[in-house]
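Input/output pair, single chain:
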Amino acid sequence: MVVWDLGGVLAPPGRALPLLAAALDLPETELTGPYWAHRDAYDLGEPPEAYWSRVGQSLGRPLDAAWADRLDRIDTGCWTVLDPAAEAVLDRLVANGTPLGVLSNAPTTLAVAVRGAAWSTVFETLVFSADLGVMKPDPRIYRAADQRYGRAPADVVFFDDRPENVEAARAHGWRAHLWTGAEEATRALVREGVLDG
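Output:
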């Protein structure tokens, strides 16, 4: 099975913050810190209203439920659009009959949106931190993912854009690779024997 992170791998980074900053009429640089500073609790299942309220507090402006809904829709929409190069790799794997999975640190609303996206039907199993209340690189998430996938650690090839998540996955026994782009991922899949060269 080949397992993929979502943000920064299947979905490219850099889309959400400019649009969110524009919606708030703020410089992107002003939003970046608060956006990421409160993200862990959100990815662990905190409701969007609580997350955006914390972001608003850090910005010195109140963000009510209507703002939370608006911003969450923008954010979710940005993280559910696949990178065309990554999608091309997925297409090759699907054509090859390779089972696919996702393991992502992601909030509940994003998990719901991904499960509803047409492209997600190629994945056998989708695992999100908000569903489990634990996130990468905590070793418990890899154990929980194994149970969801129904596979032994050695049978999982994994791609993530964060070195700490890759290291934790390797320590767990997954054949993990740092995502640096679709070309290198394809070479790694050939080396792993998943794709033909």
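The longest strand covers residues 100-104. Residues 65-78 form the longest helix (14 residues).
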